[in-house]
Amino acid sequence: CETCSKEEAKYRCPRCMKYSCSLLCVKKHKLALSCNGVRDKTAFVSVNEFTDLNLLSDYRFLEDVGRTADAAARHCIVHSPATKRLLYCLRNKARGCNIELKTLPVGFTKRRENSTTFNSVENKFYWHLKLIFPHCHAEYTLKGVPDDKTLADILKPYIDPVESDPVVCQRLKIYTASPQSDVRILMKIENRNRNSVRYNELDASRSLLDNLKGKVIIEYPTLFVVLKTLKNDMVVLGQDGSEPAENSDSESSSLSSVEEGEIRDSS
């Protein structure tokens, strides 16, 4: 037993492969290692160690995924008139604002977490918004952001040296310590190949609605807050949609792991 080192082991944890002798030792090892005891079905297995059992496990995992997706597609909420009416209203109102809003099928993470609403009385969107600060590997989710609020006001609680929350300010210290003129707000251009990721730069002095006009949005806007003084490879298109010149690499910025995670999540 790898927990008490006294008794002969009888059990092996499917998650971390630790040997245990009793239920008490099993519980102790889960608590000490923060182990849930559930086998990781997506863990990497090298070709040399791949067996028929691994193949069978992968096959059953794909079956479970297909079964879950089918169950989600059959869920009553998907086909309820109220849900369809709400999504149609959101897309229609966005189209009236020159915004192409696309929604994902139920079961997708972005579809589940999206809380965007439209207030017919105020004739205003209240957006679900995600802010990503790649230089600090931080992201924040905002709910109910009015579309007439400027991007500068939206970012104040995060990167303003005076008005930002002390805890957030400490985490985003590289942003608060930099001049506000170095802060750039980017939004990924949708419907492009994965090997051709491009971004639009947004105007912090203008409202969220003005910045979203003429753009394609999948579920809700995701804004990347970057510093132009740091070297990155995020390619920003010009105002006319043209590719930047090769000698303007210093004016480009980039994202790697954070953006890749976002792509996998939205897929």
TrEMBL record:
<dbReference type="Pfam" id="PF25790">
    <property type="entry name" value="BCD1"/>
</dbReference>
<dbReference type="GO" id="GO:0000492">
    <property type="term" value="P:box C/D snoRNP assembly"/>
</dbReference>
<comment type="subunit">
    <text>Interacts with FBL, SNU13, NOP58, NUFIP1, RUVBL1, RUVBL2 and TAF9. Interacts (via HIT-type zinc finger) with the RUVBL1/RUVBL2 complex in the presence of ADP.</text>
</comment>
<dbReference type="InterPro" id="IPR007529">
    <property type="entry name" value="Znf_HIT"/>
</dbReference>
<dbReference type="Pfam" id="PF04438">
    <property type="entry name" value="zf-HIT"/>
</dbReference>
<keyword id="KW-0479">Metal-binding</keyword>
<keyword id="KW-0690">Ribosome biogenesis</keyword>
<keyword id="KW-0597">Phosphoprotein</keyword>
<comment type="function">
    <text>Required for box C/D snoRNAs accumulation involved in snoRNA processing, snoRNA transport to the nucleolus and ribosome biogenesis.</text>
</comment>
<feature type="domain" description="HIT-type">
    <location>
        <begin position="1"/>
        <end position="35"/>
    </location>
</feature>
<dbReference type="InterPro" id="IPR051639">
    <property type="entry name" value="BCD1"/>
</dbReference>
<keyword id="KW-1017">Isopeptide bond</keyword>
<dbReference type="GO" id="GO:0070761">
    <property type="term" value="C:pre-snoRNP complex"/>
</dbReference>
<keyword id="KW-0832">Ubl conjugation</keyword>
<dbReference type="GO" id="GO:0048254">
    <property type="term" value="P:snoRNA localization"/>
</dbReference>
<dbReference type="InterPro" id="IPR057721">
    <property type="entry name" value="BCD1_alpha/beta"/>
</dbReference>
<feature type="compositionally biased region" description="Low complexity">
    <location>
        <begin position="242"/>
        <end position="258"/>
    </location>
</feature>
<protein>
    <recommendedName>
        <fullName>Box C/D snoRNA protein 1</fullName>
    </recommendedName>
</protein>
<dbReference type="GO" id="GO:0000463">
    <property type="term" value="P:maturation of LSU-rRNA from tricistronic rRNA transcript (SSU-rRNA, 5.8S rRNA, LSU-rRNA)"/>
</dbReference>
<dbReference type="GO" id="GO:0008270">
    <property type="term" value="F:zinc ion binding"/>
</dbReference>
<dbReference type="GO" id="GO:0005634">
    <property type="term" value="C:nucleus"/>
</dbReference>
<keyword id="KW-0862">Zinc</keyword>
<comment type="similarity">
    <text>Belongs to the BCD1 family.</text>
</comment>
<feature type="region of interest" description="Disordered">
    <location>
        <begin position="238"/>
        <end position="267"/>
    </location>
</feature>
<keyword id="KW-0863">Zinc-finger</keyword>
